Amino acid sequence: MCGVFGIAGNSEAAKLVYLGLHALQHRGQESAGIVVTHGDGRQFHRHVGQGLVADVFTESILDRLEGDRAVGHVRYSTAGGNDISNAQPLMAETLKGPLVIGHNGNLTNALRLREELEHQGAIFRSRADTEVILHLFARSRAPRVADRLREALAQVEGAYSLLIMTKDSIVGVRDPSGFRPLVLGKIRDAYVLASESSVFDLLEGELLREVEPGEMIILENGGMRSERLVHAPEALERRCIFELIYFARPNSRVFDHDVYVTRHELGRQLAREAPVEADIVIPVPDSGVSAALGYAEEAGLPFRHGLLRSHYVGRTFIEPAQAIRHFGVRLKLAAVRSILADKRVVVVDDSIVRGTTSRKIVSMLRAAGAKEVHLRISSPPTRSPCYYGIDTPTKEELIAAQQDVEGIRKYVAADSLAYLSVEGLHAQVGDERGPRQKFCNACFTGEYPAGNIPEELRPNSHVGSRFD
Amino acid sequence: MCGVFGIAGNSEAAKLVYLGLHALQHRGQESAGIVVTHGDGRQFHRHVGQGLVADVFTESILDRLEGDRAVGHVRYSTAGGNDISNAQPLMAETLKGPLVIGHNGNLTNALRLREELEHQGAIFRSRADTEVILHLFARSRAPRVADRLREALAQVEGAYSLLIMTKDSIVGVRDPSGFRPLVLGKIRDAYVLASESSVFDLLEGELLREVEPGEMIILENGGMRSERLVHAPEALERRCIFELIYFARPNSRVFDHDVYVTRHELGRQLAREAPVEADIVIPVPDSGVSAALGYAEEAGLPFRHGLLRSHYVGRTFIEPAQAIRHFGVRLKLAAVRSILADKRVVVVDDSIVRGTTSRKIVSMLRAAGAKEVHLRISSPPTRSPCYYGIDTPTKEELIAAQQDVEGIRKYVAADSLAYLSVEGLHAQVGDERGPRQKFCNACFTGEYPAGNIPEELRPNSHVGSRFD
Amino acid sequence: MCGVFGIAGNSEAAKLVYLGLHALQHRGQESAGIVVTHGDGRQFHRHVGQGLVADVFTESILDRLEGDRAVGHVRYSTAGGNDISNAQPLMAETLKGPLVIGHNGNLTNALRLREELEHQGAIFRSRADTEVILHLFARSRAPRVADRLREALAQVEGAYSLLIMTKDSIVGVRDPSGFRPLVLGKIRDAYVLASESSVFDLLEGELLREVEPGEMIILENGGMRSERLVHAPEALERRCIFELIYFARPNSRVFDHDVYVTRHELGRQLAREAPVEADIVIPVPDSGVSAALGYAEEAGLPFRHGLLRSHYVGRTFIEPAQAIRHFGVRLKLAAVRSILADKRVVVVDDSIVRGTTSRKIVSMLRAAGAKEVHLRISSPPTRSPCYYGIDTPTKEELIAAQQDVEGIRKYVAADSLAYLSVEGLHAQVGDERGPRQKFCNACFTGEYPAGNIPEELRPNSHVGSRFD
Amino acid sequence: MCGVFGIAGNSEAAKLVYLGLHALQHRGQESAGIVVTHGDGRQFHRHVGQGLVADVFTESILDRLEGDRAVGHVRYSTAGGNDISNAQPLMAETLKGPLVIGHNGNLTNALRLREELEHQGAIFRSRADTEVILHLFARSRAPRVADRLREALAQVEGAYSLLIMTKDSIVGVRDPSGFRPLVLGKIRDAYVLASESSVFDLLEGELLREVEPGEMIILENGGMRSERLVHAPEALERRCIFELIYFARPNSRVFDHDVYVTRHELGRQLAREAPVEADIVIPVPDSGVSAALGYAEEAGLPFRHGLLRSHYVGRTFIEPAQAIRHFGVRLKLAAVRSILADKRVVVVDDSIVRGTTSRKIVSMLRAAGAKEVHLRISSPPTRSPCYYGIDTPTKEELIAAQQDVEGIRKYVAADSLAYLSVEGLHAQVGDERGPRQKFCNACFTGEYPAGNIPEELRPNSHVGSRFD
User: Fold this and answer.
1) Contact D125 B121 (CB under 8 A)
2) Which chains touch B (3 or more CB pairs under 8 A)?
3) Does residue D434 come out as left (phi exceeding 0), alpha (psi in the -120 to 50 range) or beta?
4) At what angle do helices A110-119 and A130-139 cross, to 10 degrees?
5) Is B2 labeled as catalytic in the residue annotation?
6) Is residue C445 part of a domain?
7) Model ipTM value
8) Are D184 and D301 contained in the same domain?
9) What is the pTM of this model?
10) Judging by DSSP bridges, how do beta strands A372-377 and A344-349 pair with one another?
11) Contact: C54, D260; criterion CB under 8 Å
């Protein structure tokens, strides 16, 4: 997962990108970067670094990033990827001038494209699939930026919400399936393209609308215009339902759904599907908070903060040699004995991935006196890996791909365990044309979108990273 | 405010102090320090630094802090105090050997004592009132540590929960009024003295009991014994009620009250005292969360997270020249439009100090669509400064010292404003002998404890900092 | 200017490269980098950073750079080039696997090649001309590394001493003119390729020989073999004479000349060509030391250290608002009054570039009491820019391109000024076939080597950086 | 060893101190600090840190150090002393206001005074003997600063050149024996007190004169006046001869001797005393440079730079596991084979302490081809530890205290070894009243100055550090 933010037409462009990236920090903590240019596009300044936005950029660095047009990127930590050459936005020089790109998503045919490009003599400087787009774009002979982009993206499959900056323009584009979000807004007179609408809460801006799946928004000469990437039938739309369940900030409006309201409703639905005799409902903070409140309300049970989140997570801590049980979870969460003691507790989380954290949480709740622990998950079992940009582990590591619900319950040692049903999920998230019309739910169903099967799943595919 | 943590009898003493200080990080973010020694007390190692515990200590620093006995300290930021010489624990060499001291609290006769000591030739290396204790202790001729400490503390007035480490022992002591908390516990076989019981949740330890007001706990030769500091009548006990309202972690047990439960009950009481027609109840996170939930339950109104707290607060952010309104608050809090729009909102906080933040919050809620904003405060108006260790501003800056409730309501621009009554507070917090028997509530009532009037309030007092 | 160091066959390859780069630190202080791999070439680890070798690499970083084959690079500061994407070694993935390259030199047809490559769809990630070689190499279809390299280098003109690392081998190659140095040696059983022989003094290694102009040294399978890049006639050899005059470390053996001895002889020759009545001879440290000693000996005058070099140069210093005259030079050099007072002083330096530093030095010497100041330069006037890797300014900024010797003398305000003659230079540096046979002296004569005219000087050339 | 610098009457006082400390950096690299105040002495700002001046102070730190009066200090690394609480200038608050002190030297009765003070209730925050002076000064009842200082210093013995800053004044004082240097000068209209005159070369200031042994210079109200500390007979003067031999910068004027000239003359004297048949003379850089040149001139032998000093010393380097012989020396020095091969070499250094470095140098010279190595030392054998501020090892570690010259020669494996005689030394360094009149040469003779015997050497002394 990643976050992107671009702005055209503000003399403090880099500073606004910097703050916008801060508001998108939950979408990626590994690296942050900004590229800025002036109206004439003659000078491009780039600064990227590893770590949080606040640590990567200092006042003197921001002062040097002069310009009125800028794009920025925050990048999520993925295994083995702590190499600065993967930090985005990527920048390259091409025949048509400098080209800058920031990418949220994941291409499903990147390895094949990469090999083809290498056969044509292309060289790669990073492991990022994003670099493939850079090459395809640079190879296009089309005179207009939008056409070059159209030509390049016609060859790629998968998920992408992209920001492209050239010497004349910023272009925002979403793939035809619309896996990842991208919104258009304004801050004063300047147009803004960003991963989530929550940026406007911090920056006093205004959300105009979602960028449509398959739409290109071109910011140029102080104006904004829209073009279609391809004339894709709407049936192809496959928004990532996990953005609503877990990833986006609760104050964002994503895919025309209010995130907080949606999660609250999923909690209510879960309470209807999987009620239980209990004394209190507690969330796993922060991801389970909205759903737990919905569950408690629907169930008529008291809502309590039985697990406290540390204010200082995100920092590395050194463990004593005499190991503390569940050290990692304890650093993040503390169980509140005065709330839990002798109580039958419903604990609500948004999902279970490997099961190890849930197991530790159940154990902590019992150690703090809980008499019964009933785990409720506000989404269906996560059974299949995501190939469209969410950093899920392999199928082997996904506990729900390996075991049934009772098996998982035994593993996490809860008194009961229930997930939201796929139907229950779509009863809350969907549209009038049918629940699964607009959303990708492959992580729950394994039904990967037709025409967008990842390379790894295709017959005769031999896929593997050669470059580490 | 500050936090202290000491441990005797664990070969990884410094690492456990480091983690204990992390669990007390909410009590002070300006500086952190640890002093460690071996059983024979021949080598003392000290490391202090400015910033968070995780930033002050690295693995290699911790590795060098070898020893089985250690005390640590986290220090709150006070105006002008960003000088490393104020960082605690303080350490000095005396005739009787090294002396280490960590202090939570505030002495009310420090300036007078300091002047007397200076007249006797003493020199001061910091502005910390704690240094006065160091001098008094060093001047005592008594052979036993406990007696020297008794002699020294007989001269000081005010609030102190202290940890003292000498070459033989760690001593924990609370002033006879017991303003600030201090608890005794165990981690495996090692005795622990700490500001709050929440440390045991992280470190898998066990709370034994509160250190009593006026009690000295002496950890020596692997054992623990208790002595009285003075034979103080219990009537003098003046526990800081603000620890329960705001300061302590919700999972702590402080002054024999569960913090979370107490705050929840204060919210309920507030709802009974100051009900209002509304649609939802929201907290100001994180301080108002428990009380808001109590309020909502008692009022029978839905509880919602209408204000979101940023995960990345605590870092400095650079503001654009085109100022963003309420920039500081926006960085910390985001109003959730989908929850607030067209709603009559009760917003619950624990206290109002200057009123400026409350005013910004009310403005943000209205900007996010709230139709009415009713502010409810889960404590009485803060009318008088604290001289016992809470970092309140001067009387001139305390809005409730300058205006009545209606004046404050107008300033913060809320539709209604209500505080909890002093009686309502003590109905929840107190003991069988009468509510105000055990607690100091001077910040609400201006009734400073007899025998503990701060220098600033005494007639003919001329007080002023000469050293900055 | 830059420095390169590669080693094959030592289990601590990265640590030896790190120390080797330290010994080459005088060749580049802007950035440093190392890429390391194992015998099987499956994992490549790269670390680059800005600043000195000692600051870029920490113990933990070196520990992570595991492998037995490694190349490293130090890069000189060039105007505007403080972008981490220019830091070398560059690394790319190609169809044939990872490709690593470290470059000392400068290509004279890089912009044209770059344009051609961009026309074929190539994209560039840095401004380094080195990236052109990466592309050309990747485009070659030849099966052997040496052949791919031969094909790639057949297209480039200019100066290059390169280290290339692939999954199987390290290749060191010098351009047919041999502009920049490269030597072959051994450290225990491991072959080493390095810019200068001085690395063996630090690392207890052994210099085997110069890599010949146009020679490729291939380290593979534990062995070493030599191939010719092209069958170039030896007449083309054009070693950079400035390496001997200024750039290389005095303890290096470069182009079969001992650097210290050569500089000493140039000083003697200068004394014969340009004697003067004087009391003492002083060097501008460190570059003028050897020549000044030679001058003093030949002239029979006392040699004195009349200018002292600060031990702590290389660090940034903050200047007071009340400017100190010649602040920059004063930080680096101090004039010793007790040596200079009332003396007629000969001051020897290796070259004059813009003249500003010489002017400040003359002024400092007079301020310290020198009665007369006679400036002697141990090379001919620097009249033409270098296009082969020395970071000289443009012709407009070279004072000797704009003024005659008397004009320069007036500008620097010396009592007399003399340069070494071109003939005098070659009397000391050259071979039996004639002095200019082996060396490039274009900076003094403007006679750029036939077949290697830089793009900037070719008719109809339109050259300019588009990417900054 | 340490360096001090103070200035009164310049609006950029801190910046000038910072640059002055840079010019004194050779006197101490462990820590650096500055304290600054305004004319009215109401605000004192202090910043100290570990490391070099350039690293301890940033532009923003210097900007915060506002004031027109400031003192600074650089501190030499002593064993185990890497504790920030030892960093100077020390600052304390006393009855008479803030007191700041920076000390160069070493007190010989500090431990006894410390014990007495502790008996009177004083506490110590550092291990620095300087803190004793702080206490004595604070205890004085005298109304004038000069009298308080006089009273305090009447009790201490040993070496001190001190800068004291109070709210009204800066006082510079040298002990009656004048062990350590201190000079008075001006930068524009501001008076300056500094350890060495070389600071004026950097700062465009002017040396006025030496502060006399036993003299106090008081900078107050824009003016300067002198008082005597005690009416000491001049016969007591004991300037540290090692400042001239090794410690001071060659461009300094110390004790009315030009440092460079003195060292050069010592080299000449050495050549007269200990001639040898040889081909070249080389110095151990940088300390032996001046003497080596004098030796070469007197001997009529060529002077050569046969050992090169690295430009980048002072940084920590990581050694490979496969140890490199003499790694530490190799990092600092490289032997130049082209100069040394087949030569009979005289190598000149200023002193031998433990002998280990000399042994490594001789070995390196032989490895680089030297046929014979004749070691010449430009001072007498260092037989006794210094108790007056030079960081010499204990008598057990001083090779010349344990062995005769022939024994040392064997240990360092030189073909011959000779030291300068004590008579030869004083023939160059002394005054008309007799050579040893003005100087302390106890390190060579063991004759510690009467009335200034260090505690360690007094009968019945029991001395030991209790505080580490």
Assistant:
1) no
2) A, D
3) left
4) 50
5) yes
6) no
7) 0.91
8) no
9) 0.85
10) parallel
11) no
